[in-house]
Specification:
The protein is an alpha/beta fold. The protein contains 15 helices and 11 strands. The strands form 2 sheets. Strands 7-6-5-8-9-11-10 form a 7-stranded mixed β-sheet. Strands 1-2-3-4 form a 4-stranded antiparallel β-sheet, with helices on one face. A hairpin with a 4-residue loop joins strand 1 and strand 2.
């Protein structure tokens, strides 16, 4: 008789590795295999939702979506490889290991959005720099979620082989087919279902709940005979705790959002809404208090000095024919208000993607009073469209003035609106003697961005006059550095004259603004294009 630890005689198959035998299943092997692949599908969908949620939240909180997507996804893919290597040690206890991994992944992934948003709201420690603590937390979540997602693959491979032995190539093909189809489902569900219906925080909590249920059902239902009684109870208790935490967070998510808004914007939050494009918050505007408008967590309009900004944006461009005016962006109606102050304006077309924001500017008592009820003027027509796409179909030489009141080029979606191609399209809609004016961001704080805008407009075949005016010098409630000035680029086919139109409200010290901008000039900057954006500081 062969001793237990003696080597097997020649020609005899080696003894099976512990945990490598066929599992004792409560269903037929074919059904068990289908259930494992269904579990792979659900877990893959949840994993991709976590990835997309981190990218979306990072882009929303920090901006510069290309950088955020690159860093988050590269860190996560790297961590997945490390997780796969580490999980090799758990293959002998694949069922217990997979159950523990899924419970932990559901907790970390499900709570990641709330944790990151809490740091943003209560500390404001973002600032766009990857060296600060909050950004390190984002990388930490990417690393942790990637490790856990990567650990799923070898454990699932072991489980599917324990259901029914097959060649390695066939098992890999089945596993990855279910994984990739599940990733497709999660990738489509996030932008088209979860985000619009539930919002980022609730969507992530629901995803974590589904993840926990799927993992627990697969392990405790299908592979319970592979677990000791102690391990079964540990997994049951762990999953119940995870589900209880996620459910409690889902119940309290509205209160959490209100508290976070108060931390970010103060107690005077009057309107908070999620549109299809922006997160919009209005504070003040009643009982004589100052109205402030925040888009995506950043102060965009301050009632204390917005008039100075919009006068400097609009009035210099109105020096000349101005019967037909095109406003790109400016959904708040404040640039339109300044346009309508000029005699001789016959038509104003506003191209704004966010129609819900326009409706708020039309109906909110404080905001509509601030914009002079501009949207009630019969000369104003709103077009719900992306400015770039709309310009491609716009009639040529149809406008005397084009006002580009768009967000700073901080991410991919706005960078294309500051490209040479975009300004080339804007040039084509200008009539004879027409002028284009562009909000180009702060000059003192971001001179390279400002002068890149100027170089890009010139590359589109227009002659420019860059200028700046002093702005607010306080710190926003989100902790971000607020510019001390605003920069603009006035352009036309001929060199534009920098003065206000006859009879229009005056804008003081424009020539001083030209000199102030000129002192920061950076020469030799290449233009920004669609395929080569150049606005990263």
């Amino acid at each position: 008789m062969i001793e237990p630890h003696a080597p097997a005689p020649p020609g005899t198959a080696p003894p099976p590795r512990r945990g490598a035998g066929q599992a004792r299943l409560p269903v037929r092997p074919a059904t068990g295999r289908f259930l494992v692949l269904a579990g792979v599908f659900v877990c893959a969908a949840c994993g991709l939702v976590y990835e997309l949620e981190l990218v979306a939240l990072a882009s929303y909180l920090i901006g510069d979506s290309i950088t955020q997507a690159s860093v988050v996804l590269s860190v996560m893919v790297f961590a997945m490889g490390i997780g796969s290597l580490l999980a090799k040690r758990l293959r002998c206890r694949a069922a217990a290991g997979f159950g523990a991994v899924e419970a932990l992944l559901a907790l970390v992934g499900g709570c990641s959005a709330m944790a990151l948003y809490a740091v943003f709201a209560w500390t404001g420690d973002w600032g766009g720099a990857w060296a600060n603590g909050s950004s390190c937390l984002l990388v930490g979540f990417s690393l942790a979620i990637g490790l856990l997602i990567g650990a799923e693959v070898p454990l699932l491979m072991e489980l599917i082989q324990r259901v029914r032995r097959q060649d390695a190539g066939g098992a890999v093909a089945d596993l990855f087919a279910a994984d990739y189809v599940g990733a497709l489902a999660g990738g489509l569900a996030f932008p088209f279902l979860l985000l619009p219906l539930l919002g980022q925080l609730t969507a992530t909590l629901i995803t974590g709940t589904v993840n926990a249920l799927a993992g627990a059902a697969l392990v405790l239902g299908l592979f319970r005979q592979d677990l000791t009684r102690r391990v079964r109870w540990l997994l049951v208790v762990a999953n119940l705790l995870v589900l209880a935490l996620l459910a409690s967070a889902a119940v309290l998510v509205d209160d959490f959002e209100r508290s976070a808004r108060h931390a970010m914007y103060g107690r005077d939050v009057r309107v908070a809404m999620h549109t299809d494009v922006h997160d919009v918050v209005l504070t003040g505007g009643t009982d004589g208090s100052r109205l402030d408008l925040y888009l995506d967590g950043r102060l965009r309009v301050s009632g204390s000095d917005e008039r100075r900004y919009h006068e400097a944006l609009v009035h210099p461009a109105m020096n000349g024919p101005h019967a037909r005016v095109l406003v790109l962006g400016g959904g708040d109606g404040l640039a339109v208000r300044e346009v309508l102050r000029h005699r001789g304006v016959r038509r104003v077309d506003v191209v704004e993607l966010d129609t819900q924001f326009v409706e708020l500017a039309r109906t909110d008592p404080a905001l509509s009073a601030l914009n002079g009820h501009a949207y009630g003027d019969p000369r104003v027509r709103v077009v719900a469209a992306d400015a770039f796409g709309w310009l491609r179909q716009a009639p040529r030489a149809a406008y005397d003035v084009v006002v580009s009141d768009l967000p700073d080029p901080e991410n991919t979606s706005s960078t294309k609106l500051y490209s040479q191609e975009f300004y080339g399209l804007a040039r084509e809609v200008l009539g004879v003697g027409g002028r284009l004016v562009v909000h180009a961001g702060p000059v003192a704080a971001r001179p390279r961005v400002f002068w890149t805008v100027d170089a890009t407009v010139r590359a589109a075949g227009l002659r420019t006059v860059p200028y700046s005016v002093g702005g607010r010098d306080s710190e926003a409630t989100d902790g971000a550095r607020v510019p001390h000035d605003w920069g603009y680029v006035l352009a036309s086919r001929a060199l534009p004259r920098l003065r206000t139109a006859a009879g229009a409200p005056g804008v003081p010290s424009l020539q001083a603004g030209v000199r102030a901008a000129a002192r920061t000039r950076l020469g030799g900057l290449p233009p920004s294009t669609l395929v080569h954006p150049r606005y990263a500081d």
